[in-house]
Amino acid sequence: MLATIAGLGVAIWTFGETGLGDIVAVARRIGVAGFLLFCLWSLGTFALLGAAWLAAAPGEAIGRIRAFTWARMVREAVSDLLPLSQLGGVVIGARTLTTAGIATPRVYGSMVVDMTTEMAAQLVYTLFGLAMIASLLIGDGAAAALRPAILGGTGIMVAVILLFFVAQRAALDLTGRVAGRLVPQSQAAIADIRAELARIYARRGRVAKSFAFNLAGWVASGAGAWLALHLMDVRIAIWDVMSLESLIFTLRSVAFFIPGALGVQEAAYAVAGPLFGLPPESALALSLAKRARDVVIGLPTLLGWQFGEIDGIVARRDRR
User: Which residues, at least 6 apart from 139, have a Cβ–Cβ distance to it below 8 Å?
Assistant: First the structure.
C-alpha cells in the first residue's frame, strides 16, 4: 500500500509538471474507435502470452489455449490494478489454472518455465533497444543522465534471470524441506512439481516455443504502443517506439515491488521519450492510454475471476 501511494504521488507530480491539459489533449485524439482497436490489439498480445504458457505445459491440448490466456490476463490484472506486487498476480494466475482442472504440478512447473522464458525474451528485447540507442548512451547528450538507470536496470535484470534459472531447483528443495517440517504431506507435492519441472525442461522444443511466443509478445506490445501513438496522430518511427518500450519495460521490471509500476512508468516516459523525438506530453499521453486500457481490460477480468471463485465455492459446497 505504501508503494502504491508513493507511486501514485510520483505519477500525479509527473503529469502536473508536464501539463495535464496538454497530455489529455493528445490522448483524446485516439478517439473511441481507436482506443477500442488498441484494446483489441492488447487482447491479441495476451493470446501470444497464453500460447507461451501453454507451450511450457507439455501434455495439455491446444484447446486449453483459452484457459492459459485467461490465467495470463488475470495475472496481469491483479498485478496492475490491485495493491499487490507482481508476485501476487503470479500466484493468483496459477490458481486460476488449478481451479480450471489442470494438475497442480503441471501448473506450477509450466509457470516457472514460462516465467524463465519470458524474462529471457525480455532480455533479448532489451538488448535490441540498447543496440538501437548505443550511440546515445555512449555520448554526453541528454541520454547520459539516464545511462546509470538504463544500464543498472539491465544489469539487475540479467542477475535476476540468472538467479531465477540457476536457483529454481534449489529453491524447490528448500521449500520442500521447510514445508515438510510444517506440513509433512506437502513434501510429495513439492517433489511432484520438481519432477514436472525437470520433465518440461527435457522437452527443449517446447521450451524454445515458449521463448518464441514470449518474444513475439514483447514485440507485439511494442508495436501496440506505436499503434496507439499513430492513432493519436503522433508520427514516430516504429523502431524508435520499440526501443523506447524496451527501456520502459526494463525499468518497470526493476520496480516489480510497486503495483503496476505506478509512477515509474510515467516518470520513465517523461524522461526517456524526448530521447527518441517524442515530446513529453505525447509520451505521457501514451502512458495514460495504457493505464486506461489496463482498466478497461483488467476490471472485467477481475470480476470474471471473482465470479469464477464464487462458482468454485458453490460447487465444493454442493459436493459436500
Answer: none
